[in-house]
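Case study B.
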Amino acid sequence: MRDLGHPPVWTGKDGKPMSIAFYLVAALTVGGGLAAVMLKNTVHCALALTVAFAGLALLFLQLDAQFAGFAQILIYIGAVAILVVFAILLTRSQEAPRGGVFSKSWLTGLAIAAAVFAVLGWAVLQTANLLPRVSEAPVVTVQQIGTALMGRYVLPLEIVALLLTAALIGAVIVAMHEKEGAQ
Amino acid sequence: MTPLAGYLLVAALLFAIGLAGALTRRNAILVLIGIELMLNAANLNLIAFWRYGPHPEALTGMMFAIFSIAVAAAEAAVGLGLVIQIHRHAHTTDLDQINRMKG
Amino acid sequence: MIENADQIFVLLQAWLLSFLPAAWRPAAGVVLDVVAIICVFPALFALTTVLERKGLGRIQNRIGPNRVGPLGILQPVADGIKSLTKEDIVPLRADAVLHFLAPLVLVVAVFMSFAVLPMGRNMVLVDMDAGLLFFFAMGASTELSVFMAGWSSRNKYSLLGAMRAVAQMISYEVVLLMSSVSVVMISGSLRLTRIVEEQNQYSGIFPHWYIFTPWGLAGFLMYVVAATAETNRSPFDLPEGESELVAGYFTEYSGFKFALFFLGEYLGMFAISGLGTTLFLGGWSAPFSFLGWVPSWIWFFGKLMLSMCVFIWMRGTLPRLRQDQLMNFAWKFVLPMTLVNLMVTALWRFLGEGWEQWVFCTAILVAVYVLMGRAEMRSEHFGPRRYRYAE
Amino acid sequence: MLGEGILKGLAETAKNFAGSFVSADRLTTVEYPEQRIAPIEATRDFPFLVYDGGDWEAGMRCVACQICEKECPPKCIYIEKSKDKKPDALGKPQFYPAKFDIDISVCMSCQICVEVCPFEAIKMDTEFELSTTDRFGGLLLDRKRLAKSNEYYHKVHPTEAAEVDARLAEEKAKADAKAKAAAAPKPATAAKPAPAAAKTPGGETHA
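Model:
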């Protein structure tokens, strides 16, 4: 076959095909994200959000970031999604309100989002040739991550720990039901 | 399209979707969902750059992503706590109705 | 011969794969492993249901099922046929898609967690570097299926049961993780095969299982509590408390979907017992050095079934907790205990070999347990409930 | 100490479990259709109609007074009174039930019918194997299926039946004495009061 100068769309320029798996997972993620912001029923939105999170975790795994992928599932699907669902049920906002689910200024919002995507996509496609193409899969053990967390990144780790504690206490205080007439 | 560009495009798309959700939805919880999506898109960018960057063994991008996951979890907890408190106060989570500073 | 018995399944797999062209072997090997897991654990599930019903019967001075087959051992077959032939009812206003997906998500997530459990020497599907994290990630996904089941049924009992279940699972997952972290601190790895290897050493005839250390015993006890709560077993079976909520989140399920929930619940018990075995009871290693000739998988599955028996025993003994007791127990007693246990584990690590580590660690743990237990039992949130108006 | 109670409980159930294999008195269950435990005298589930003598239709104690039908809380008794009269055990002519049905799928075994019956005609049974493939007809018992002999009553509830018999015998003796007293002074009019006496209970029932 004649060399066309540019490979088919579904292959990378290094000739290494962007795997089918990537397209599938990307479609899953984007579809989940779209459903999460577009569905009428709020609980469906939250569940679609977990699909998007799961897709992202799979993308992380494709990128050889095992630890981050599993952490993503554990934290986002196991905790954040459940938290969102709890909040939806506690605020009784699962049914669509009468005035529609989108705000009055939805057109502006959509335009802004489209503009942002256009700029980002343009930037990525413009610089696509400059981006690194090949790189061998890095071997990252959990031990290395632990050593890095306790060595080079110990200060951020401590700050995050403090932040999480503060957030925990803050969330409890904010959401705590003050009892009427409590002494 | 290089693999990295593919991941970056997915991240950009996800970010735009999250932004659109945060800007157009009326329910406060849905706005939080949009923000979570945006944070996750950023995470995907970080991991993709780490994977295809020059020094993956330095773990910089990965560490950023892990910290960002932790911070996002805290953000979700506080944000949802606030939403519940607002609902208790105003009996609605519709952001178009909660438009005054004065309760 | 003995080595062959130990590795019989590995050899069997290699023999089966030798019929295939070399290019197919890795994929076919994975398929074989998956098929093995999908066959073995449901079979064990069937066995456990008989054990449970007969064991509970004996505990309550009854005989238990004894009609289907000799001594009633074919009871699960009858149960299976019954649930397969029952009508699959979906409530009219239920969310049909989620109602259908919920049991599938549960069973798939639970099956996935078996992938990292080492079930014998060289017998692990994926020897992942972050195996423990993977296990917990899959465990976290089951909560979502519980919520989906409860919410999609459009039934207040289902929803209440699901909310209870999710709240309970989230609370006790923290405990489960924290008590496992102490093992990770000592073994220095999240890789489950490595954790087993660390314990597969002997001084004299006694093994180095983590349960035989003060912090390991404390961690194991808390792990058992958290595992019982995580799998919604009695005494933590509030989510499906029959006296209050009909059947909790699977009230509106019937036929095969109900059977799937049942299967998922028991598979969850197997998975969590398997992890507990791996973390604290030495996985597939023999309890005494002179028993090393017994095939490793016999030890693993033996320990697994033993822990199932403990689950059944606890179910036959303990009454159900109340929701506030459950939550207070998790957050005010077990979680602080796990934090103390983490400190003690660190102390154990830094004190090094010698009698000091035993004395100090035991003393701290016992003192904290006794003091905290006393204080909590006296406190208003923990002891018997006082009613403001009823008395 | 915290956890002591749990250990005690576990020990207790373990004792039960192990004990059920060694001692028979820990396993009180019997294999029901093959083995049966001896019936307990106080057992009672659904009502039946008692008759005296050998013929169920002739010896039926029930006089179709319909008190039980009126008192039955779930209204599961259905009685049709006969047009004619037959002599009862005491020799008095009485109405008898032309139709007496009890729907035991409705019956709640409250025993109120037994307590209100002035004629000791309805009693509680111990028969419990009543399952049937016909859920409407099979559980609606007619008077033929309800009728059971006094001997059967003696068999299932001996003490109670003995008391009932004693009471009936006493009544019969009283009635005999009365009849004798009535017969002795005016033997000539012996035939006359009999129809009058027979009319009175009928009139009472109607009232």
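Residues 234 and 315 of chain C are 5 Å apart (CA to CA). The remaining cases will be described in the next quarterly update.
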